[in-house]
Amino acid sequence: MLTVTDEAASLIRGLGREVNAAAGSGLRITIDAEHDSLSMALAPGAAPGDAVVHVGETQVFLSPAAAERLATRTLQAGRSAERASFFLK
After folding, report:
1. CB-based contact 50:64 (threshold 8 Å)
2. Which helix (H) or strand (E) segment is 15 a member of?
3. Looking at residue 44, what DSSP letter applies?
4. How far apart are CA 87 and CA 77, in angstroms?
5. Where are the domains of the chain?
6. What digits encode the pLDDT tens for the residues 36-61?
7. Which terminus of the chain, N or C, has less C-beta within 10 A?
8. Spatial separation of the C-alpha atoms in residues 49 and 66, rounded to whole Å
9. Separation of alpha carbons 12 and 32, rounded Å
10. pLDDT band at 4 (very low <50, low <70, confident <90, very high)
């Protein structure tokens, strides 16, 4: 299952606060089949079939294809003066 660092969880919570996301919301990761790439967006909840990763109060929802692809990966976050970003290790 995907591992989420404390830094990534903090960034997800911050993004949710910026848009006044409801309780139970989180970051959803899916696979864009057309481009064979990952897509991330804030979501109000898990979609049917999603795997859910909990880090404290933070939730990450993974589509079945994303859960399979990211099973051994770690979601990390970095911040600079100009921006914040997620990356996978």
Report:
1. yes
2. helix 6-18
3. S
4. 6
5. 3-82
6. 899 999 999 999 999 999 998 889 99
7. C
8. 11
9. 21
10. very high
Determine whether 64 is exposed, middle or buried from the number of CB atoms within 10 Å of its CB (0-12, 13-18, 19+). middle
Length of the chain: 89
Superfamily (CATH) of domain 3-82: HesB-like domain (2.60.300.12)
Single pTM value for the model: 0.86
Question: Can you tell me the distance from the alpha carbon of 30 to that of 82, in angstroms, rounded to the nearest whole number?
Answer: 26
Token couple for 10: 């903090």
Can you say whether the dihedral through the CA atoms of 10, 3, 73, 32 is positive or negative? Answer: negative
For residues 62 and 60, give the distance between their C-alpha atoms in angstroms, rounded to a whole number.
7
The answer to whether residues 87 and 40 touch, using CB atoms and an 8 Å cutoff, is: no
